[in-house]
Amino acid sequence: MDLLDALIKRIYELSEKHNITIPRWSIKAGITPSTIYGITNKTSGFPRITTLKLLCDAIGITLSEFFDADYINNAFYEEKY
């Protein structure tokens, strides 16, 4: 699995686990829903760490917990030009 797909999977997984919709989660995090949809639809590239931190804070988890998934740790990254 490539890294962006792994991050997207984690976003959806945490949304389901915390029973929060993407729009509600993003608003709670102080970012626009279009920011998250841009990530999940692969139109905005990789999320910034600050965006992930805001999302984590909004559901009460740490960045470590966000990245604590085997499929993220085993993901590959390929530079695309």
Describe the structure.
This protein is mainly alpha-helical. The chain contains six helices and no strands. The chain has helices at 3-17, 22-29, 33-40, 49-59, 63-67, 70-73. Helix 2 packs across helix 3 (33-40). It is globular. The two termini are 19 Å apart. The model has no long low-confidence stretch (mean pLDDT 95).
Concise structural overview:
With 81 residues, the chain is mainly alpha-helical.
SSE topology sketch:
Layout (H helix, E strand, L loop, with lengths): L2 H15 L4 H8 L3 H8 L8 H11 L3 H5 L2 H4 L8
Helix pairs in contact: 2-3, 2-4
> Strand-and-helix sequence, N→C?
HHHHHH
Cα distance spanning the termini = 19 Å
Proportion of strand residues: under 5%
Net shape: globular
Mean pLDDT: 95
- Which bin fits the share of residues in helices? 55-70%
Structural class: mainly alpha
Say how many strands there are: 0
Please work out how many helical segments DSSP would assign. Answer: 6
Features:
81 residues; mainly alpha; globular
